[in-house]
Write a structure and sequence with these properties.
The chain is mostly helical. The protein has helices at residues 2-13, 17-24, 28-35, 43-53, 58-61, 65-72.
Length: 73
């Protein structure tokens, strides 16, 4: 799931959710709900998050064997 991949990336890089939320134009509560799976992440949300992180959407969307294993955790 996309939110798990983004959340794992943030954790691995030591990036605070608050910083990403501010850069992406979300409230802390909105972004937290997305990262906890309590709010759907829309395509435009992914674009905003990726722009804030300097990443490409495919970094979090593409499915491969590594990402499929991450989703099972």
């Amino acid at each position: 799931m996309v939110f798990k991949r983004i959340s794992k990336y943030l954790k691995d890089q030591g990036i605070k959710q608050k910083a990403v939320a501010e850069k992406a134009g979300f409230s802390e509560q909105q972004f937290s709900a997305m990262m906890n799976g309590n709010r759907k992440i829309l395509a435009e949300d992914i674009a905003d998050i990726c722009k804030a992180l300097g990443k490409e959407p495919n970094d979090f969307i593409l499915i491969n064997s590594v990402n499929e294993e991450d989703d099972k955790e």
